């Protein structure tokens, strides 16, 4: 019997499509000997739900699932139809996966107890961030945080399982639904990005070991609220203008964050006179992106302290957020800390 040995030259006519998300997760399982595969399966469940939401988003105009749903969520924000659909898809995937015992979602008033006593993980999620941009075809996203429960397996869910600071996250990520669909995540060992190939139905590793530039020249903030900003932030924005930085603000948190992560920049959603505690949610927006930013070499603060060290006190707690390239975040912190005395020179 003749045996032919495979060589790379045999595949010269077919280009490599790269490493799939599933294969990458399996390759990295040794980084989590305590997880016994559950965390890996949980990431796959999230990826599956993301594929379904991607499909729904792409056909929203044809299927008449764009626009408002006619109700408001716990934030007092008008729900879009796709908000509701995405929330159902992710909750259903996490329920069927079996690794999660509870879910905290932007779209639900209370903790969702999945009645899974053997589940080791709690997931906090914004199923569809920036959904008001759907009808005008602007990029939107999903943001998620994963925590290990702290109470014994099999016991009822307790507040301490949910109210964990961001420094206790075991994984976090986001999905960007744009010109291409990307899933970016970290498990505390760097940040990796995967691009969805719809003809194959797979996420492929496209951005390995993502690193945020230490400095940048992009600032992202809603300057329509400029008159409500504290003096230090106004001074920082004027400094950005004087140095001819680029102002880039999409209004979709994931899209703005993703651009600045790749190109270098800072995203700011500060405290204002109207919203002194900020508007972004700590548990399922700020914590996840802050974990990713730090793992990529960036930084995230509320203007005065590290986001990941904030102890949550309520389910839908809000926080100011300054996130992105390390030098830019450090600099805006300096402006904010001396802004009241107006001693910063621009």
Structural summary, described in words:
The protein starts with 20 loop residues before the first helix and ends in an 8-residue tail after the last helix. The chain has 2 domains: 187 residues, Fructose-1,6-Bisphosphatase, Chain A, domain 1 (2-Layer Sandwich); 124 residues, D-Maltodextrin-Binding Protein, domain 2. The strands form 4 sheets. Strands 4-3-5-6-7-8-9-10 form an 8-stranded mixed β-sheet, with helices on both faces. The chain is of the alpha+beta class and 346 residues long. A hairpin with a 5-residue loop joins strand 1 and strand 2. The C terminus is likely disordered. The chain is globular, with a radius of gyration of 21 Å. Helix content is 30%, strand content 24%.
Largest sheet, spatial ordering of strands = 4-3-5-6-7-8-9-10
Percent strand equals 15-25%
Radius of gyration: 21 Å
Number of strands: 17
Assigned CATH superfamily of the largest domain? Fructose-1,6-Bisphosphatase, subunit A, domain 1
- The assigned structural class equals alpha+beta
Distance between the first and last residues' Cα: 79 Å
CATH class of the largest domain: Alpha Beta
Low-confidence regions = 65-70, 341-346
Tell me which CATH architecture of the largest domain applies here.
Answer: 2-Layer Sandwich
Question: Shape, please?
Answer: globular
């Amino acid at each position: 019997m003749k045996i032919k040995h495979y060589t790379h030259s045999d595949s010269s006519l077919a280009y490599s499509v790269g490493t799939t998300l599933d294969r990458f997760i399996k390759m990295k399982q040794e980084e989590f000997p305590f997880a016994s595969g559950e965390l890996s399966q949980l990431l796959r469940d999230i990826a599956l739900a993301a594929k379904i939401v991607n499909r729904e988003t792409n056909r929203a105009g044809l299927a008449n699932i764009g626009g408002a749903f006619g109700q408001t969520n716990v934030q007092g924000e008008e729900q879009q139809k796709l908000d509701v659909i995405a929330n159902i898809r992710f909750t259903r995937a996490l329920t069927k996966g079996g690794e999660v015992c509870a879910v905290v979602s932007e779209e639900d008033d209370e903790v969702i107890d999945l009645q899974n006593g053997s589940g080791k993980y709690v997931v906090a999620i914004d199923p569809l961030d920036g959904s008001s941009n759907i009808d005008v075809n602007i990029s939107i996203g999903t943001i998620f945080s994963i925590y290990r429960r702290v109470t014994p397996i099999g016991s009822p869910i307790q507040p301490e399982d949910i109210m964990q600071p961001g420094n206790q996250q075991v994984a976090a990520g986001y999905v960007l639904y744009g010109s291409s669909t990307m899933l970016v995540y970290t498990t505390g060992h760097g940040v990796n990005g995967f691009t969805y190939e719809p003809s194959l139905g797979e996420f492929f590793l496209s951005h390995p070991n993502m690193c945020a530039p230490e400095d940048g020249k992009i600032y992202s903030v809603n300057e329509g609220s400029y008159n409500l900003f504290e003096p230090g932030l106004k001074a920082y924005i004027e400094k950005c203008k004087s140095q001819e930085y680029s102002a880039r603000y999409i209004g979709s948190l994931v899209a703005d964050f993703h651009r600045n992560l790749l190109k270098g920049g800072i995203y700011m959603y500060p405290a204002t006179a109207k919203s002194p505690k900020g508007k972004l949610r700590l548990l399922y927006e700020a914590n996840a992106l802050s974990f990713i930013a730090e793992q990529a070499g960036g930084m995230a603060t509320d203007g005065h302290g590290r986001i990941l060290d904030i102890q949550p006190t309520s389910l839908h707690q809000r926080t100011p957020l300054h996130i992105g390239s390390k030098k830019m975040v450090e600099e805006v912190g300096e402006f904010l800390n001396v802004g009241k005395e107006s001693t910063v020179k621009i």
